[in-house]
TrEMBL record:
This is ABC transporter. SMART domains: AAA (SM00382). It comes from Aeromicrobium chenweiae. InterPro entries: AAA+_ATPase (IPR003593), ABC_transporter-like_ATP-bd (IPR003439), ABC_transporter-like_CS (IPR017871), ABC_transpr_LolD-like (IPR015854), MacB-like_ATP-bd (IPR017911), P-loop_NTPase (IPR027417). PANTHER family: ABC TRANSPORTER RELATED, IMPORT ATP-BINDING PROTEIN. The keyword Transport applies. Pfam families: ABC_tran. GO terms for molecular function: ATP binding; ATP hydrolysis activity; transmembrane transporter activity. One of its GO terms (cellular component) is plasma membrane. SUPFAM superfamilies: P-loop containing nucleoside triphosphate hydrolases.
Amino acid sequence: DAVITLDHVSKTYEGGVHALDDVSLTVERGSFLAVMGPSGSGKSTLMHCAAALDVPTSGTVLIDGRDTRSLNETKRTEMRRDLVGFVFQAYNLVPSLSVADNITLPLRLAGREADPAWVDSLVERVGLAGRVDHRPAELSGGQQQRAAIARALVTRPSVVFADEPTGALDLRTARGVLKLFREVAEDLGQTIVMVTHDPAVAAQADTVVVMADGHIVQTVTEPDAADLA
Ligand code: ADP
Ligand code: ADP
């Protein structure tokens, strides 16, 4: 069962840069995919197309069977709200809101009720039960990213996209946060697509695709950090 399907996807930006060149990729439901590759290889463009933040110049992107190119901007925004969660390098928590309100914000934006038992279990899973009334600035980097992970999961999206989720953390904290992210996702049957340049981080995924010059040049299953370096 594929959550995301890219079929012969190309993306050419104004100015003529071919950021993606005939990329095909399937992301299975419940799997954890990492995207690696040098700067400028097309990782962000791939993620933006796969997350319906952008549309390809040619080819097809299906999220849960829905064609992103058949939708206008408004419908694509709705689609993201329903189907997609995001984790960013810089956490992107709202400074003025409590941890609890940050985590439930996507529900409010979607006009959905927060089920308290679900929110509590999520807060518990990410180890922030004692911190829900704190502001983000009162948390460590690792805790802020764990709050951001809970926020990405709170709507039970079809897929969570993570862009260098451990890029702002020290090595030890990064390891812990990523392990937790993977375990929570596994528990919930959650699909993750993560962009990273760090082989040790990518090696946590089930599958790693390596990009170069707008192409997928390698697909590694059961990755090993040493093979990816
Ligand atoms: P990566 O995430 O691997 O660094 P990107 O997808 O950001 O790669 O970029 C791929 C190529 O597309 C690069 O040559 C980059 O300069 C170009 N590019 C990215 N975004 C834009 C844009 N909005 N307009 C024009 N060119 C872009
Ligand atoms: P983590 O491994 O989750 O990142 P740390 O080891 O960095 O946690 O933080 C240890 C403790 O210090 C945590 O309980 C955290 O709440 C507290 N702490 C870290 N940074 C801050 C801060 N800026 N303000 C208040 N407390 C903080």
